[in-house]
From TrEMBL, chains A, B:
Belongs to the class-I pyridoxal-phosphate-dependent aminotransferase family. Residues 51-387 form the Aminotransferase class I/classII large domain. The lineage of its organism: Bacteria, Pseudomonadati, Pseudomonadota, Betaproteobacteria, Burkholderiales. GO terms for molecular function: pyridoxal phosphate binding; transaminase activity. Keywords: Aminotransferase, Pyridoxal phosphate, Transferase. This is 2-aminoadipate aminotransferase. Homodimer. One of its GO terms (biological process) is alpha-amino acid metabolic process.
Length: 397, 397
């Protein structure tokens, strides 16, 4: 059957593909899935929080009542009742979000890709936090921007620091609530200042918010979307409050932009599964998340506290870490001379994994940082793992 | 809450976004979904073929047995047992396809996007059939190639016609089986000739095959993939043999390319829903498609024959059309002076819809062509609609 002169292609990739790199985190995850490893490396939510029975019942209901619609091609912008639910959930007394502003996406990673596609030309300046979310850096990098790293501190991004780099930039990407990787949040006064600064510079502000609902105190931060709905692009996800494996997120943007994002999505994958959207709507439409999210908060708050206690007990002086009030991550800063990439080698040999901080920097990396996730590890294993890590760090100091 | 100087952004889109256009077909579909319209415009499979009960049972089984795995993040390349099933289904006595060559995608539209991302630079030459699949033109256009249109006739693409444009081109995109939009198939001798010509020019050959299983005689064409697995990129889909709304397709490529496509997918949407992949595997693993596909073929063959009979009875002399032996479409060529865009206005006023041919051409369009789909319309309505269309065409001649 095969032709006689069958020779493998000598591939010529596009310039954007030639520079693509695998996520370092995904590479680490392959190593750390062995059960004997105590892994603080994952960014996965705890499967104990997945509402399997509710999902099963909803699949049954939707397929029984509307099987042929749910399994047919659907609209690119999404399932209308779910878009309406999202618009309502984001509207406040002073700021109404319209369902037409909502575009459903295949996870919020797809929203990052679509935003990059529609706003970034080669060489466009894109402002990101220092450090920033790795998945966003990866998604935007495909379109070959120049990243400008914006200063951050314990109150999050420093709005004044964007003045110098905002002129001519295409967008600012921020993750203001319980940031990945640092666990930090942007203070409320800074939110207003940031929104105002961006508006003054005609700079689109991307507010990525996968963790906002996971505030341990149960009081979510105000959204920048509601402070300037004509200038903020908001991204949300069902991954952390329901389940990530269904791949369902959304982006909310002013109409001129959301229509472009919709065109980009049409070319990228036509639409996100109707069935998935109908099932999620079926699960959440009667207030399920209001009962469910507090159980996730309680679980994560408990494990976060266990890790903070263990860090205080086991890590040597000279090491500092963030104290998150929500979300899934703690960020650790070691003395300057310790390279956490090298520490990881020692650590894996001792059956403990984490993610070194360097990949989270768009420009110059602080190689003495690392990210710890506590959500999939029991308090006992957290104490055990942090003790091992503390000894390794002490030995290097 | 809103800031005082809230002003809407003046948007500056990327060059690729500034040129994006909505699919003309999707625009037509919005008009033609009114129940009184006899629509031959859709590219949707018939919902009568969706195995709703089997899907429902499989969701229940997978969520019961492996709910927490199915709902968690999963690998970018896909669910291993499904990739293995696909590799087996594409392997022949002389040509083994490895599971590692299979990348699961969010519908085969995503495979088009990823291929464009990884192989096309601005200005790259991309060879396409005349006419070609609109969704592919849309997906590739995002990356701003120069399309070279390759000649076709009733035996499909004319391999000799690529010689002049193959040198320096990045890829050739072909839909060899029951093509969308023409319903034509590439003859077997031409398949070998095309594969050889592409291999000689080191030109990646994309074999898009959503309809191959829908051969009315039940004898699928040989795949070009198996003639030169080192040079052919094969795309498949569950949309036409199972259900499109779940958005599940796949691309099979030589390892150096499939690894790049996987990196591009990681940045684009991390992975395709595990649950969907596990459910599809659950449905098909024991030979379901071998029993199911013949029922789709029989339904479509019957409706295709009804349309061919109606065309012969109702369309005036001077009009010609293809006689597909599979798939979902018939392609009609009217006398040169009739513009099918204008015909559509008349036709919709008479409650009949079709898709004008012009959008399917990458370069100069033949404006006297149109596409008819018969798969979602009953034989009675097919006869009624074709009679109305025949009268309108006769009046213009």
């Amino acid at each position: 059957m095969e032709i006689e002169n069958a020779v493998p292609i000598t591939w010529r990739f596009s310039q954007r593909a030639a520079q693509m790199q695998s996520s370092f985190i995904r590479e680490i995850l392959k190593i750390t899935q062995r059960p004997e490893i105590i892994s603080f490396a994952g960014g996965l939510p705890s499967p104990d929080t997945f509402p399997v029975e509710q999902m099963k019942a909803a699949f049954d209901t939707v397929l029984t009542n509307s099987g042929k619609v749910a399994l047919q091609y659907g609209p690119t912008d999404g399932f209308p009742p779910l878009r309406e639910w999202i618009a309502n959930s984001l509207s406040t007394a002073g700021c109404t979000i319209a369902p037409e502003q909502v575009l459903m996406t295949s996870g919020s990673q797809q929203a990052l890709d679509l935003i990059g596609k529609v706003l970034i030309d080669e060489g466009s300046r894109v402002l990101v936090e220092t450090p920033s979310y790795l998945g966003a850096l990866q998604a935007f990098s495909v379109y070959r921007p120049q990243f400008a790293s914006v200063a951050t501190d314990d109150d999050g991004l420093v709005p004044g620091s964007i003045e110098k780099v905002a002129i001519g930039a295409r967008m600012l990407y921020a993750l203001p609530n319980f940031q990945n990787p640092t666990g930090r949040s942007l203070s409320i006064p800074r939110r207003r200042e940031l929104v105002e600064t961006c508006a003054r510079h005609n700079l689109p502000l991307i507010e990525d918010d996968p963790y906002g609902a996971l505030s341990y105190k149960g009081e979510p931060f105000p959204k920048m979307l509601n402070m300037n709905p004509g200038g903020v692009i908001y991204m949300g996800s069902f991954s952390k409050v329901l389940t990530p494996g269904i791949r369902l997120g959304y982006v909310v943007a002013p109409l001129p932009l959301v229509r472009r994002l919709e065109l980009a999505k049409q070319a990228a994958d036509l639409h996100t599964a109707q069935l998935t959207q109908m099932v999620v709507h079926e699960v959440i439409k009667d207030g399920f998340l209001e009962r469910h999210i507090p159980t996730i908060r309680a679980l994560y708050a408990n494990q976060c506290q266990a890790m903070l206690d263990a860090l205080a007990a086991c890590f040597p002086a000279g090491v500092s870490w963030t104290k998150p009030e929500g979300g899934m991550f703690i960020w650790v800063t070691l003395p300057k001379h310790i390279d956490t990439m090298k520490l990881l080698d020692h650590s894996i040999a001792e059956r403990v994994a984490f993610v070194p901080g360097a990949p989270f920097y768009a420009n110059e990396a602080e190689t003495n940082t690392l990210r710890l996730s506590f959500v999939t590890v029991s308090p006992e294993r957290i104490r055990e793992g942090i003790a091992i890590l503390g000894k390794l760090i002490a030995a290097l100091m």
